[in-house]
Design brief:
Blueprint: H1 9-17, H2 33-47, E1 57-60, H3 63-79, E2 82-83, E3 86-87, H4 90-102, E4 107-110, H5 111-121, H6 140-153
Parallel strand pairs: 1-4
Antiparallel strand pairs: 2-3
Length: about 150
C-alpha cells in the first residue's frame, strides 16, 4: 500500500485504542475488519491488567475464519514484541509470549466451538452427561427426524 493515509484512519485508530465504549464495525470484505478487531483486543490485553487472553472471546462463523483469527492474533502479538525495533522489557515480553501460547486455548473460533466450550465447562449445571458429544452436521437431519417422531408419537 502507498504512504497515503486511509480516509477512515482516525476511526480505525479510535476503534483500536478507545475502550470506553463498544464498537460496531460495518465494512466490506477485505477492508481490515478482522485486523482492527484483533488490534483492539491486543491493545486492551496490553493496557488493562484486568484483561487476559483466557478472558477473550472472539467469535466467527466458519472453522476457516476461526483459524485465520487465531493466526492473526499470533501475528499481531509477535509484531508488538518490538517497539521501534527495540525489544520490550522482560516482563512485557514474557506476558506477550504467554498470550501467544494461549491463543489456541482461548475462546477464539466459531460460535459452535464457543457454545461447546461453555456446555463442556458447565455440563453438570446444564444437566448434560459428562463427556457429551456434539453431533456433526451430517447427523443433523436424521437426529432432527428422530426427535420429531418421538414428540409426535406421544
Amino acid at each position: 500500500m502507498s504512504n497515503l493515509e486511509l480516509i477512515d484512519a482516525a476511526a480505525r485508530k479510535a476503534a483500536i485504542e478507545d475502550h470506553s465504549q463498544s464498537i460496531f464495525i460495518d465494512a466490506g470484505a477485505g477492508t481490515g475488519k478482522t485486523e482492527t478487531i484483533v488490534k483492539r483486543i491486543v491493545n486492551r490485553l496490553l493496557n488493562d491488567d484486568a484483561v487476559h487472553m483466557m478472558n477473550v472471546a472472539a467469535i466467527t462463523f466458519t472453522d476457516k475464519a476461526g483459524a485465520e483469527l487465531r493466526n492473526r492474533f499470533r501475528k499481531v502479538l509477535r509484531e508488538v514484541q518490538e517497539v521501534d525495533g527495540k525489544p520490550l522489557d522482560k516482563a512485557q515480553a514474557d506476558l506477550i509470549s504467554e498470550y501467544v501460547h494461549q491463543v489456541d486455548s482461548a475462546a477464539i473460533g466459531t460460535i459452535h466451538s464457543f457454545c461447546k466450550r461453555i456446555l463442556t465447562d458447565y455440563s453438570i449445571a446444564a444437566k448434560l452427561p459428562v463427556g457429551f458429544a456434539v453431533s456433526s452436521e451430517d447427523a443433523g437431519p436424521s437426529l432432527k427426524g428422530e426427535r420429531v417422531k418421538r414428540v409426535t408419537e406421544k
